[in-house]
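Deviations from the work plan: none for this task. Representative record:
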Amino acid sequence: MYNKFCKKQLWECSRDLVSVAMGRIPAETVIKNAKLINVCTKEILENTDVAIHSGRIALVGDASHCIGESTKVIDAEGMYIAPGMLDGHIHIESSMLSAGEYARSVIPHGTTGIYYDPHEICNVMGFKGVELMIKDAERTPLKAMLTLPSCVPAVPGFEDSGASITSKDIREQLKLDSVVGLGEMMNFPGIQFSNEETHAITGATLEADKIVTGHYSIPDTGFGLNAYIASGVRCCHESTRREDALEKMRLGMYAMFREGSAWHDLKEVSKAITENTVDSRFACLISDDTHPHTLLEKGHLDHIVRRAIEEGIDPVEAVQMVTINCAQCFRMDNEIGSITPGKCADIIFVDDIISFNVKKVIIDGDLVAENGKMLYEFPEYQYPEFAMNTMHVGETITPDTFKIKTDKKKNVKVRAIEIIPARVGDYERQVTLEVKDGLIESDTNQDVLKTFVFERHNNTGTHGVGFVKGFNIKCGAMASTVAHDAHNLLVIGTNDEDMALAANTLIKCGGGMCAVQNGKVLGLVELPLAGLMNVKTAEEMSDKVANLDKAWKEIGCDIVSPFMTMALIPLACLPELRLTNRGLVDCTKFTFAELEVDE
Amino acid sequence: MYNKFCKKQLWECSRDLVSVAMGRIPAETVIKNAKLINVCTKEILENTDVAIHSGRIALVGDASHCIGESTKVIDAEGMYIAPGMLDGHIHIESSMLSAGEYARSVIPHGTTGIYYDPHEICNVMGFKGVELMIKDAERTPLKAMLTLPSCVPAVPGFEDSGASITSKDIREQLKLDSVVGLGEMMNFPGIQFSNEETHAITGATLEADKIVTGHYSIPDTGFGLNAYIASGVRCCHESTRREDALEKMRLGMYAMFREGSAWHDLKEVSKAITENTVDSRFACLISDDTHPHTLLEKGHLDHIVRRAIEEGIDPVEAVQMVTINCAQCFRMDNEIGSITPGKCADIIFVDDIISFNVKKVIIDGDLVAENGKMLYEFPEYQYPEFAMNTMHVGETITPDTFKIKTDKKKNVKVRAIEIIPARVGDYERQVTLEVKDGLIESDTNQDVLKTFVFERHNNTGTHGVGFVKGFNIKCGAMASTVAHDAHNLLVIGTNDEDMALAANTLIKCGGGMCAVQNGKVLGLVELPLAGLMNVKTAEEMSDKVANLDKAWKEIGCDIVSPFMTMALIPLACLPELRLTNRGLVDCTKFTFAELEVDE
């Protein structure tokens, strides 16, 4: 894989690297006296030095002869050093941070490379949005390696997103230097049913000699999984049972064990390794989705390594799972993933192999973070106006908008989406609601709330209408433009006035998440960048989310991270019932469903 | 790595593969009831089926639903199956067989892919010769993956070979589909001294995103090795001490443990794994040089796996070392090296994990060998006339040619090359010889024999003159055109008449190896293809070599495989004293040496 994520290509600096190793020219930097976590041989090697030049590693061993007057010597004082950590599958957007701020947040935790799939911004703005994210990320030292969004929109024909990506687009975009592969191929039915366009998307990636990343979320270790892998999908982060992960590894698929903010698979999935005597080279640790407060309070891959060790995975093996295994998955281990000569000098210092607190981070030979703080200043990046202005709702929203008329006289039976907290699935329920003046209203006693999804990308003026159950809100309303994957404007509420206020608050601020009550905005997280992110810092965003959390509680919502659960209400590729701007979708049959149930 | 070594590219057949796995179309072939040696997880999995279509694996597990009327079902009857074996570093020429015959010899032993460096034929005929070898190999099912000869001639300025390869040539040839990398970079001093042209050769390979293979033959695990690896060299087969191999693995270099016909490193080097608790993913098993009788009597990688198991390496780990580890070294594990969906259907059946007798071999889905015999018939290949006619010696050789004149009267002190049987090094000795009629003669009492190297590529009429010690020949002469790396005509003998006969015998038959006595050719192995190979079968060649062996013994030579040791006499990159067509070379100082020692 051609690696543009480095200071100098190896062939441009090999003569200098060799000269440093031989002692003919001084190293730019030498790390002295470290305990090396050797991920190649799975050992810890005491008293190891590393000589660095041109952003790359020239020598590992005794580097005394590489030190000259100009050499910066970093005494590790017996600390452990490990390769910079790699997250094999993440969506920057779920952090609500811009790519630059995301980099600033994760680097001090030891993350030096990410394989990111910007499919959220792509659903809103298409490749134009992806390009902005590339530019934003490029100014940072983070190796931001792109996997192209493969499924935009997620469920064609059932929703209106801001973009639509074809195999022709993919073929074109694969030529970009920053693209290392295809983002999670969620359309596993398309793969399994040999759909021509779906295979054209994966095929273009294979033909470009890049990596197809996967998303196989059903508990199947049989022929369906085989079929999926046979198409060339190389990794998958959707194992929730130990047997799923183990079978993927056995079938030569990299099993990426997920420990994100919302989805905690590691406890169960780590048993694939701890309860079987297997070679774990096909296992990785990844985050998928991380929220700003998780980044601040727990960290990123450092936290996940600690969690893996807690679950009984050998510490050096856990480090392999965020370094060389991930690099081998992407066939980039010639460039990154180990502290060995010739590789990019991406090196982290940790105080201890168990507590795994990251003390220093070196990327491409530069000390970029220390004691949890970024040292490296990178230039400002200004997103263009169009990226900060993506609320294009084609109707004026007033309380009247939320009136739901019916021909029924007294009672009406409607379909409702029942959420399952901290799970991605939901249930289709049928509930009976009272009819007042020909209108159907929310019923807080039954915890059944009006839910609207407004198309917000192309002023189509369309919206879908449904009911949800499970948030336990007693008053007010809540709204969000983080609404997978089309990211239209989602509004849930107990009364029409508050719903209109919630919707219009987000339209006004360019998108985000809010909670309102009695005509007052209780909490608001503005996400003006594509309606998904903010250019503010992680600290500021974390505070805002904490405030919103409080507001949610005030209006009665008692589930953890309600916005994550809420955000999946429109995601029509998940069972059982979903609501998009086009209406209710029966996701078991892939047909539209009527709101009212005929009796 | 773009893989042209398959029946169909995955993107061309993924829809069919998926249809097979899903049971919609029947598999072409199904293997039933096997014990799978799973190299991904290092396990043995009982009762496993494999479904195959379009030359690739569609499913691994229960394949009952993949069987249709047209499906060929192979009942493994509980035998073990493993991925087809890969030899990470070999020279076809050392088998004395053409590429086609080589393939025919190794495939029944379970070898399905080789990474070969044709630097012998390249020294004789340049890329024209390499191209012929590619064509010869292409007609066979063997995945013959080429690494470009990197050091031709081996020691520029000290010998005349038939070709000279520059970085510009390398850059051009890297574009060939069959080229996966650069052959062993023997010029480690060139790397270590940052020589521009040497780094241009490795750099061109890195820039083409291909693999640089190595050759680091000195016992150094310090900064010299670091420097060599920092240049981007990814593997090395020259470890002779356990600590060399271990250090290479620790430095992220694939350590290729060699067990060839002449060099037996495995006994010692395997201790890198068996006496240390290390992850062995950076270890491979390779042959480097295998002679026809070894292929016939012992086998190829199957033999080396058995040897590895004898040395205490876990059997499944030994199989990993000839499959997935090698594939990962060449960053081709997405295509070969494991029995997992989507990969090329290269599968071997073995009777038992310890005895490791290969019973069946499938390549690209076709059963190509069974019970040690090739089933697959491939078309004839005719080497062009120029390839069968490479003896271009620019002088008429007669007994007079071998007269060595001196000004000394009675005695003369000369430099002699003392060979060390079964070792690649030699010693420089000084011996005193009697002068008769102004001429220096061989002295069988001291075991000091006249040795001549005639340039044979471009009719330059040059020859070098020296003496060797150690073969213990009492009468007659021997000659060979297998004389590394320039492969000029080497003649050693006790008297001028027999030396002339030996030389002219080889000139007449187009090259080879022979032993003569009293005007009679006792043994002759004709190698008319570039003076290195023959298009006959391994059986015929093995018989011929056995006859020659007998002849060698008749004239008194008592060392094992004398021709291997003899062939290194001109290799001026090895210590201490060597003889090329330009004269004696002091290989410790890289200067020419005088035959006579001044006193």
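The longest strand of chain A covers residues 43-53.
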